[in-house]
């Protein structure tokens, strides 16, 4: 996935692989992009040079930050942007009325060789209104990119942000597993979620296709169906198990497990007390251990966690230990996870003490079952003994806020700055081709993002800079940056362009940047807004243009 | 897309095309399906005959119904289920520990020729706990289908239901357009949303790829960027326009538009009054009309709807009319849609009267901008003049509830009924291979869905039948059905299997079924729950099995 640009040579698009999902083509777009392309072409405007900004207006989940994701897929789409004859034939059919053949010829030869894309590196922490991508090129083709680019960034950034927020609540010491494929919004809702949750700080996924496509570590055990598919240990035919070092073999592992279960049942120090455990569960655990003696992790809540699942698990784990194997742990998928995890921990500790089994008390406990930021927070407050969280539905569908509102706005055409007005000031776009900077303070934290016009000089370290809110005239502040970071880097077409990094490196960038933010911007409840500003010059220009474009009413 | 089964002949899977999204393969699954398959295989259990039910537990959006969707994609997946060598190689890598080569050989030859799928027809109205699919086959392969089937049904049914709910609020006379691609959860979040919103009762989509894949009607106009890409009518070079019948030609359409604008500006009956309209907008509208004289629909809120957008639109529409063209209408994308649509309607009616233009007052008004069920409801209550709604974000991401909780539960293996217990009674599954019926009352409405054991006799018309709540012993009722509908039909593998219908027919079924429901089940607020029941015999069996499986505690 690492793509190096060769210094000085013109690159071919074939260097960059196509989008991960083969359904991402130039016709994965809104019809109006094609009608507009036709109208631009009819008006002879299609080659006018335009600049579009892709940005969002409000961070999701009542938060004050977003993790920018989806850039690599955008660049793959742009690099391979080409209508096939099949697409062209469909466009001819789809356009209302009859369209001229010349337009179809225009589409036929269209690619992104005249397009330039500057972007904030993927995995960066970003803020409202600052362009994530700046797309410059002939208006005909640049406009045609809108829907697809917005689609590729919107969900990617949303779910990466969601993952990062879960990581912040869970803390760095916990393992976070994404288990959402079945509940995701369609097949690549699942695949994208797995990719971008990993980017946002998760450790692994259950999604095999995502593991294959992106090299994300895979995790998983078994389900309730596996447990209830067994009736009793009698049905296990192949009962022998070799020891871990291969030196010996246990001829009747089923019996060994039963022996341990009897010992556990006689242990008076075990809290609660339990009668007979469920035999179909015992059979399922035994059978699973015979298949994966090295990686035995059992789902313990099919019948009853404390009275059946945990004793059954311990019996199998202790039998495995006799043969030199180390069981991995349990998964809880229902009930009071705080309470059950604490009880399970105590149980393991009693086993450790009673039977002199070092480290048995540290057995890993995974919890799943409709977890989200809030339930993680509650678990933390209640106290729990969970080592790993498996998170599905709420994570991958971004249940708390299912969409991010990225938009793609024309900010300049033919060197003329343009802006979209609106009755709602938050929807007014910031005109002009812009440069964007992040200014850092003395303590190393980012202080403010600053947008300036293309030809304004870059802000300098140690210089006193007036940063203005783009629309609110009373909000402004002087900043003396200790470090200045240019945010927009070239990702498409220039000879010197940024490398596409492996997913793992993008994930590392994300984790590093999250750690670098001032904590009050990142907290879950009532975070402090991060400041996004424009230069004094850009501020003045915005307001000049605004007055110019808005019609003046006549009161009667 | 219509697939007929040939009577009497064994069908080849190649008759059925692969899933729409090529990413849907046997490895689009959770890792634990593969570890379980390995454990089943190791235990020699993989060919035991199992029955799984796919169902959901609670209808979404605080409603009491769901539109079942996704079946065709499930059948395509099943019919083409086959591991490639590339998949096998990855499975070898992905399984924890080392797996035996024999297992990989087993996967190599695996397909769904031994699997049977019964399902409720796609586009049907369905209710909690009733199996949407019943999958029967060797446990090894049936288990491997779980994640993918659930993924394919969950979002499809959720978004089809969301669309149906929007249709109910909007009423049948309004045009409903799905505009959500850019905000959807990834590329095929968008494509699935377009397909299943159409199924749920929408009329068209903006998504070109969905139009091509599924034959859904396409709609779209232009965006704000198109409007702001123009500076003034002076830049329009090609100004001539042929009349609709080709008999004459207007050499300066730009001037004709200007003449009409002047006339409109002098019309004293137009409410409000306005000064100069925005010239870049006028240029954009004129240019768009030159490209699409037959299909002129303008987005009128880039600068100011009443002072600029509507007068500009009317000038262009009247100029087009001089040449025999009929403009289609306007789109409003911001502001107070109820108020603006009423003002626009008045404006059109004044034009009709002042200039003697028949039907100008009926000009179509499309509204968009973050619409959802609730805003549609509010618009209805306020009174509005909107003819068509363009709905995006809230519709396609199912913002009000981003996931449906479909599950896939083992209900029988080796002819032994199985059930999953849970501390939460709503999560307990109903055991046994079941038949499912919908019983209709005198007034033609469905009264209750009834699940019975496989060998119980089917309910008969006119017979008094005791229907019991599966878990609540006090909830039961006698029903004398006037009509009995068998819900589960064979969709895979039997010689006589149901045809897969074209999308349009499935949509018709959905619309018909929605109309057939008793209205109080369908209302938006506090709908009456529809009853889902089991036979007395199945009830008794469930509770016998429950007591049998649950461990008995010992209080100390």
TrEMBL record, chains A, B:
GO terms for molecular function: glycosyltransferase activity; metal ion binding; nicotinate phosphoribosyltransferase activity. Its cofactor is Mg(2+); Mn(2+). GO terms for cellular component: cytosol. PANTHER family: NICOTINATE PHOSPHORIBOSYLTRANSFERASE. Transiently phosphorylated on a His residue during the reaction cycle. Phosphorylation strongly increases the affinity for substrates and increases the rate of nicotinate D-ribonucleotide production. Dephosphorylation regenerates the low-affinity form of the enzyme, leading to product release. Residues 433-541 form the Nicotinate phosphoribosyltransferase C-terminal domain. Pfam families: NAPRTase_C, NAPRTase_N. Belongs to the NAPRTase family. This is Nicotinate phosphoribosyltransferase. CDD domains: NAPRTase_A (cd01570). It catalyses: 5-phospho-alpha-D-ribose 1-diphosphate + nicotinate + ATP + H2O = nicotinate beta-D-ribonucleotide + ADP + phosphate + diphosphate. Pathway: Cofactor biosynthesis; NAD(+) biosynthesis; nicotinate D-ribonucleotide from nicotinate: step 1/1. The keyword Magnesium applies. Catalyzes the first step in the biosynthesis of NAD from nicotinic acid, the ATP-dependent synthesis of beta-nicotinate D-ribonucleotide from nicotinate and 5-phospho-D-ribose 1-phosphate. Helps prevent cellular oxidative stress via its role in NAD biosynthesis. Transmembrane segments: none annotated. It is an enzyme of class 6 (ligase). Keywords: Glycosyltransferase, Ligase, Magnesium, Manganese, Metal-binding, Phosphoprotein, Pyridine nucleotide biosynthesis, Transferase. Residues 1-22 are annotated as: Disordered. Its EC number is 6.3.4.21. The keyword Transferase applies.
